[in-house]
Amino acid sequence: MGDAQQESTPHAADEVIIRSYQQEMLDASLVENIIIAQDTGSGKTHIAVLRMKIECDREPHKVSWFIAPTVALCEQQRDVIQKAIGSVGIIHGGLEPKQWNDPNLWKDVLGKNRVIVSTPQVLLDALSHGYIDLGREIGLLIFDEAHHANDDHPMNCIMRNFYFSLPIRPSTRASSHGPVREERPMILGLTASPMFGGDVAKAFRKLEMNLDSVIRSPRQHRNQLEAYVHRPEFRHVLYNIPWAYSDCHLASKNCHALKKVADSMDVQRDPYILSLRESLAKMQSGPERTRLDQKLSKTILKKNSYTHKGIRDLLTTAQDICFDLGPWAADWYIQRVVEMGLKNASPYSEITTAWQSREKAYLVSHLKSITITPVSYEPQSIENGISDKLRVFLRALEEEKERAESFNELYSGIVFVTRRDAVLALAAVLEHHPRTRDRESFRVGCLLGTSESSYRTAFLDITRKILRQSQVETLDDFRSGEKNLIVATAVAEEGLDIQACGNVIRWDVPNNMASWTQSRGRARRKRSSFVLMFERGGMDKARVEEFEQLEREMVAQYNAERKAVEEPPPLPSETDGEFDPCEFKVESTGALLTLQAAVSHLNYFCSVLPNSRHTRHVAIYDIDPPDLPEGWHAFPDGQQDVPAYRGPFGCTLTLPKALPPELRVYTVERKYPSKRSAYQHVAFNAYLELHKAGLLNDHLLPLTSVVEPELEEEVKDMLKDIEKRDGTASVTSQLNPWLPLSDEENWWSTEITVEGLPSLTLLTRIEIPTLSADELPILHHPRMGRMKVKLGPRKVAHLSRGELTAAQHTTRRLFWSPYGSRMQWPRFDFVYLFIINGDPDGETWLPRRSWAMKVDERAMKVDEQANSERVHSVNAEAFVSENGYPTDLTWVRDNRSFGRLYRFVGWHHEKLAEEEEAEICARPMYSRFEEVRVTYPLLLVEPLPRRSNFLLPLPVSNATPRPFFLLARYSSLELLSPTECEYSTIIPSILRRLETAMIVKSLRNTLFPRAPLAMIPSLFLTTAVTAPVAEDLTNYERLETLGDAVLKFIVAVNLIAAYPLWHEGYLTRRKDHAVANSRLAKEAIRRSIFRWIIRARFSPRRFKPLYLSAPEEPVVTSENPLEETKDELVAGGGKTRKEIEELSTKMLADVVESLIGAAYLHGGFDLGVACAQLFGLGLEWRTLPQCVEMALSRVENTEEVSTQLNNVERMLGYTFRRRLLLVESLTHASYQYDDRTVSYERMEFLGDALLDMIVADFLYRYPGKTYAPHDIHIRKSAVVNTHFLAYICLRSSLDVDASMPGPNARGKIVMQPKTNTIHLFQCLQHSSPVILEDQKLTFNRYSKVKDEIEGALTMGEMFPWAALTRLQAPKLFSDMIESLIGAVYLDSEGNMDTVRALLSKLGVLSHLDRIIRDDVDVLHPVSRLSVWASRLQKPIMYEYTEEKGLVICTINVEGREAVNASAEKRGHASQEEARFAAAEKAISVWEVA
């Protein structure tokens, strides 16, 4: 509306400034429904805002709904309203309100806002679907630009379909603070021109009837209105027409050249026509053939193929410009369009992607054949090449500028032009003409509409790119004064917030009264002018006089006393007057289906049906009778005149194949007066039947699941975005299996035998479970080699107090030397105790410890602070003085507190050189002593092996420890026998293995208590629950990689069985939800998996013995959800101390997948499914045989398949028992001739998961290889990517006998041997010429690179990534392979060996085997470069340029010479090809390892 200028200055709510004429209109709107008719700029929006503020108080339970015809105007008015009323919501099509299918969402919007601003269609749809109750939820309805409320405009439909059926609102009620009443809302219309047409009284009355309102304009304060509204001064200029339209092209060289080309064109030679003829010749009889026949005939009749229509439109437009603006503008326009056409009509440009390459070449050839004469920008050339009209216009423009400046005002103006192309041409003239090109004079911008054409755009849409600025940028520049002249189409007449300007020039006379009023209203500054251009001696002046007369009549109507409309408007009637309007209302919601809305509703229904990537679902209307006789395109020229058919009409409607057959086809008889009427009636009937069938909800909207209404809620959940995974989860710590279940002091005894050592008795408060052979630890000792550990039978230990005390002291002695720094000497409450049985050196060391104890007792008597811990070790010099120089000593420690331990080698009595003695004294360990003296003998020692985790295999090393000397005076001896020392070091490793085994037993008993899951080997389970951070001998990474593939496959099979009508998009989304890490982590937490994840890193050097009680127990409050985690009975006892930790949710998800992988390894897919079933994942699980049986039960038996499909069986080496599965796997969504099956997407979904599964399993189990996850991934990626599978599809072929009879050398007729090669891709059933062209182009590229690819795959050292990318194969090639894999799996009743045989036949597994066997480098070249650059800590840059039809990729790395490679330009895929090729070249040139 653009008249919100008064509101631009904000005021406080209680300081609203209102003019008298506005108050007059506001008062009138409070007592009756009115349409305010005031000039643009008079503040109508201000009145509406005040009215809404009052309505907020009058109707506290209802909203005010402000309707504006365009999104731009909605946003503009929302901003104005929001300044006065805070809670304002805006709804327009960009927010996809048709998908707001939850009634509560609409209720929430109404509850949060007092005012809603929307386009009329939004409100009409919401009312039609019963989401908004007009009578109960809207108190005031405001129509901006109310003159649109006519005929079938959404504004009028709102009133007609929903308003007049409501109870009349009592006029006496001032407010509504009681119960909400159902009644008509009040109406307020806003317009500057309340009429279309030429009869003012009739137009006024019709608008008033449609809106149940009275047109009002200020009467009491009209003088004030006129004082604020500055009517522009009306002026006109006259121009001459020097040439006839039919001859004007002769003045333009480019126009003349264009006409010669256009006249020479023959539509019969158009590739589009030829392709239609080719398709028609191959087509069987049926509806699709009839449609194609009609399309061919109509295209020839109208000559509206893309190229012919484009060239003809270009000529017509150029001729219009030449006639109106002159030959220079026409020459400029043709030159620009042809230049852009040749640039953008390259075979792979974004504008022309919908055509076949032959059409593109056809257009380009005609554009090139236009002999373009470049335009001259010399001033005289431009002046000589403009029309008299343009010359008069320039003079008028200069005069208007001088006039504005004479009032000391800056010039600002708008030029209204009817045609968008004329806007561009006129702007070009203004930019270059010597009288206007000076920026000090005119700074020109353009305003055009922003609507976009749909599929297969019109050629002249290319001119949209001529504009250098967006609409928003142009308007901003005009408001700021950066631009002072706008050349615009009707887009600037209404609906945009354009400031008042001083001059409006109409290049073309307005078409109607509304256009006249709206454009004139833009000139509303004081002393503004409105200039019209008239053809001298033409009819334009009479038309203007007619507008002026109508305007006088309008003012007279305003000033007259107008009475309210008594009767409602008549309901719409059909043009033939015989058919009653169709309506269907759902009483429970109020949703209403009308004849006028049926087609759009049905279009929306089709748009949300299960969709494929290559085919749009649309409703197909076949008019009865067809527009042209069948075969008209082949009639001789003299017989092609067909008399126009006037009716009646019928129609057959065909809905997409995603629907059940019984709901696809609808027909209405041939009885309707127009095609439009027939379309509407058949759409209405179809939509009604869809509702009866349960495919529409009670709001008359499609169910989310559409073809499976009973799954509505399930699909809603599935369609939600996949929940993002939090990085960590708060869980309790890892299970401690050593802790007893009760406080009763019961002990269990288990004998441990370590190869090469005396046996060891392990005493525990819990029962150690029986361990199988693969669960027992094997130790790898650096000196003693491989040591097997065995566990004897467990039994109850009856210990005396003395025996218990002795065991406690032995345990402390074993742990103290290596781990005492992390222990407390007085504590004996260990969770495990040890007794060495028959220590061969025990009798030797017992008196030594007794002596040390006596020494310690004497020290305690002298000094109560003496350290009793020293009884465990003694000073070496003191020990020697009492015991001599024994050679059976074990460990020596430097004299620091818990100093480093060394292994005793011997005594050294011989004196060293002074230098060697000085070196010993200078050691840091002696720096704390003041005078260090070397005394003899010296202790010869060597470092203990750094290795402390004896569970890991020994690394290969030739290093030997180097002995050195210690001073006895400053060293201490550990009082441990050799056996005790060995056990001190290996006991942590034994305990770790026992702890792991007990955790796994606990997991088995708790999570898998019953068969068959209980039978999963402990080795598999141990791997499955061991995290990489634990740094154990094994971890779950490999098993998780396998489990991931297993899970995705079994989920895919279950989904295929459970949801027979879901399309691939739904299936993929549901699978993603089921296997998402967020879902897996939640299920892991629900099952308390975190208790059994072995994640504590085993580091014997940091080992700390476990005690029965912790010094400080953390408190778990009731607010912590983990408090509810119960301790469950586990193997040997075990509790989880309630210590809270943050655990990676990816780790939780990985363990779920690795458990599924472990189950699969042991028991195949049945056990994998059983394990997955344990976690739920939102599915109703079935075994794979059950799923296959369900899927096959829906497959009909048939032998009727084409011979071509028999050839496919021979290519695959497999014969289908259920031939329809083969048909489905090779049927594209565009294929319309076989209703027995759907297209291949579902089979492709299954085959994709199956291929991943088989390849992952192949790599996991490959003999002699233990690939890490990364290695599995890169090798799997090599053979499952779309490029490689497309290559497999392209190379799959069959030679068939094509022998034909013919004469031999003697003239005798004999069979002439011949073979034809049939390729697999040729067997795809489709109805798309685009696919046909894509297949041909792709095969051409394949023919050029197949030898290179085959050579690399069979003999090369590197995988041919770049060569495969050069195929540029559309995804449908790889889809065919995957869909065939899925079909064979089902037809073979889930036989994996059959599928493996198929993959071997196709070459997938054979190529993979060669990759493994010959260790082919499969790392992607781009990835390799990235790793290399990262290692060098240098950034790598990829730059793309285009030159001569090539895409060039240049790779730059600092310090290296740039490397580049090119690819033929074919869109984004060409960049990928160039990047791969450049990366491979860089690897070679830069010698990247």
Keywords:
six-stranded parallel β-sheet, 1489 residues, 47 helices, seven-stranded parallel β-sheet
What does it look like?
- This protein is α/β, with parallel strands linked by helices.
- It has 47 helices and 39 strands.
- The strands form ten sheets. A seven-stranded parallel β-sheet has the order 3-4-2-5-6-1-7, with helices on both faces. It has a six-stranded parallel β-sheet with strand order 8-13-12-9-11-10, sandwiched between helices.
- A hairpin with a 3-residue loop joins strand 22 (about 780) and strand 23.
- Helix 14 (about 325-345) crosses helix 18 and helix 29 (about 980-1005) crosses helix 30.
- The radius of gyration is 45 Å and the shape is elongated.
- The two termini are about 70 Å apart.
- Residues about 1-15, about 345-355, about 450-455, about 575-580, about 860-870 and about 1110-1135 have low confidence and may be disordered.
Layout of helices and strands:
Layout (H helix, E strand, L loop, with lengths): L19 H12 L2 E4 L6 H15 L4 E5 L3 H14 L3 E4 L11 H10 L2 E4 L1 H9 L5 H4 E7 L9 H10 L22 E6 L8 H12 L2 E3 L5 H7 L4 E7 L13 H12 L6 H12 L4 H16 L3 H20 L1 H18 L12 H12 L10 H6 L3 H19 L6 E4 L3 H13 L11 E4 L23 H10 L4 E4 L14 E4 L6 H8 L8 E7 L4 H20 L23 E3 L6 E3 H13 L12 E5 L24 E6 L10 E8 L2 H18 L19 H8 L8 E5 L14 E8 L5 E5 L13 E4 L3 E7 L3 E3 L3 H19 L12 E5 L5 H21 L10 E3 H8 L7 E4 L6 E8 L5 H8 L16 E6 L20 E3 L4 E4 L3 H30 L10 H8 L11 H22 L5 H12 L1 H10 L53 E5 H31 L8 H9 L10 H10 L6 H7 L15 H21 L7 H12 L1 H10 L1 E5 L2 E4 L5 E4 L2 E5 L9 H27 L5 H5 L5 H17 L4 H11 ...
Helix pairs in contact: 1-2, 2-3, 5-7, 10-13, 10-14, 11-12, 13-14, 13-15, 13-18, 14-18, 22-23, 25-29, 29-30, 30-34, 31-32, 31-34, 31-35, 31-38, 33-34, 37-43, 38-39, 38-43, 39-45, 40-43, 46-47
